[in-house]
Design goal:
Length: 191
């Protein structure tokens, strides 16, 4: 049929391309490990600074609101105290044992987990920042578009911290997928 439809040249191109792609997969691509590690380290340092700035702003703002609310609304004060504890414990979950009154914190500590919308969902409203964007399910959205609507400096810091998080995951892929010779062997899918 190939001869019938005069596709001999296309078949030849396809065979050559397939061989070239196979060779690329087998040989792989050499990764500049010192460069990747240097970039990763630079981005990690920036992310730590951004998260610290977010933490400082959020802590200051929530503490200020807590002082102002002490005389007004006990429920609101309790909520702010809860959010402040959540912030100070890096988003870890609090468990209070009723019998003993003992408090245990569980989960992974993160100075300010900007990448986690659930973390932001707790912190921003306590700072008086309400999202005007909604998800498909009608919940407050804390994505980049929603954050762009805020004039508060923490919103831009969160966007930048999230960008750092994305870049760190990008560089991690190289480190996770290269072999002992710093070579990545891709799987190339031909369409």
């Amino acid at each position: 049929r190939i001869h019938e439809y005069e596709l001999d040249e296309l078949l030849e191109l396809e065979i050559n391309l397939t061989q070239a792609l196979f060779d690329m997969e087998r040989e792989g691509f050499k990764i500049d490990l010192p460069y990747i590690e240097s970039e990763r380290d630079t981005i990690q340092k920036l992310e730590v600074r951004l998260k610290q700035q977010c933490y400082d702003i959020a802590h200051k703002e929530i503490s200020k609101r807590l002082k102002a609310a002490k005389l007004i609304d006990v429920e609101y004060v309790d909520k702010l105290v809860e959010v402040l504890e959540f912030l100070e414990h890096g988003g870890m979950k609090k468990k209070v044992y009723k019998r003993t009154g003992e408090i245990k914190w569980s989960g992974e500590f993160d100075q300010f987990n900007a990448a986690n919308p659930h973390f932001i969902k707790k912190i921003f409203p306590a700072m008086g920042l309400e999202s005007t964007e909604k998800t498909d399910k009608g919940q407050d959205s804390w994505n980049k578009l929603a954050l762009a609507g805020f004039e508060h400096p923490i919103a831009e810091l969160v966007v930048r911290a999230r960008a750092c998080d994305g870049m760190l995951r990008f560089y991690k892929q190289f480190l996770d997928n290269m072999d002992e010779n710093c070579v990545i062997h891709p799987s190339i899918q031909q369409a």
